[in-house]
Amino acid sequence: PSQRESRSPWRRSNVYLGHFAISDVNAGKFYHFERQSRTALNFAGGQADPTRIWLRDWTIKLVDPHEEIWRITAEETGVRLDLVLDAIRPITRQGDRGLSQKSASAGNASHYYSIPRLTAVGTITTPAGTHNVSGNAWYDHEWSTSALEKGQLGWDWFSLQFDTNMELMVYLLRKKDGSPDPASSGTIIFPDGRAQHLPLHEIEVETRGYWTSPHTAAKYPAQWVVNVPSVQLSVQIAPFVADQELRTSKSTQVTYWEGAAEVKGQFQGNPIQGKAYVELTGYSRPLIMDKK
Fold first, then answer.
1. What pLDDT, in 10s, does the model give residues 133-146?
2. Cα R_g (the chain), whole angstroms
3. What is the mean pLDDT of residues 187-204?
4. Which of 96, 197, 287, 291 is the most buried (most CB within 10 A)?
């Protein structure tokens, strides 16, 4: 918060942190990496016009602000990503017009919006070679100065894209007794683009299986049933690869599970399927954010 006077180009008060992960479903492999860097000598930074964030050669760049086209590039030890993303959904403001409450305490909230579907075209390189890829992406942007409420251990977050051009986002803020905090909620976006906020009482999430990490001994939920009775939606979610844990080591400072999953179920009496991304925090240890 306070910048010291210095003539040294190395002295900076800001540090950037980035995570980069690839789930190779066919090979059953999960590659994950972390970088940290000061903004000194332009090693890392962020700018608004044109929008660009970088950590050395990891970059996220808005290449066409009018068409909402992004480019993402990242490379680490033989694993590389180079994608162009073109938004085909408008911005969805999560929570109350973009303010996402995280507990009953005043001020414990974030600013949060999503672009729930973008076309993705480019290349992915793994030890198996370089592959031309295409598919759909999900863009989330959330920022805050608040921390988890006392008694909250972490969260379970789900983003689902269905083959019917419908999307669902759910986050459950998890308390010490395992129950969700009342501030938990979600959003469903119908094929016509209409978004509907889902308070916790409209969401049912049941864990049907678990996976225990052989690396950290953390026990994670690994299969779920998600029901939204008000819109007649019921789906099963299962990870494509069991081990998609980002671990505390030389590669990551925070241990959590985040990865790709398969979705099958029913919507208003008709079969539905799709893909999901799931993030699980606070299972290895409570996710406490230091506010010093």
1. 999 999 999 999 88
2. 19
3. 96
4. 287
Q: How many other C-beta atoms lie within 10 A of the C-beta of residue 8? A: 8
What Cα–Cα distance (Å) separates residue 215 from each residue in 175, 243, 259?
24, 10, 17
Contact 289, 266 (CB under 8 A): no
With cut-offs at 50, 70 and 90, classify the pLDDT of residue 292. very low
Of 197, 196, 233, 189, the residue nearest 88 (C-alpha)? 189
238: β partners: 262
Q: Look at the block and give the residue holding tokens 């940290």.
A: 36
Which of 237, 66, 42 has its CA nearest to residue 159?
A: 237
- Give dist(CA 244, CA 258) in Å, integer: 6
For residues 27-37, one letter each, b for 16 or more C-beta atoms within 10 angstroms of the residue's C-beta and e for the rest, the string is eebbbbbbbeb
The token pair at 165 is 């051009």
Contacting residues for 240 by C-beta, under 8 A, at least 6 apart: 23, 25, 259, 260, 261, 262
- Separation between Cα atoms, residue 211 and residue 243, nearest integer Å: 8
Convert the pLDDT of each residue in 6-20 to its tens digit.
Answer: 788 787 778 899 999
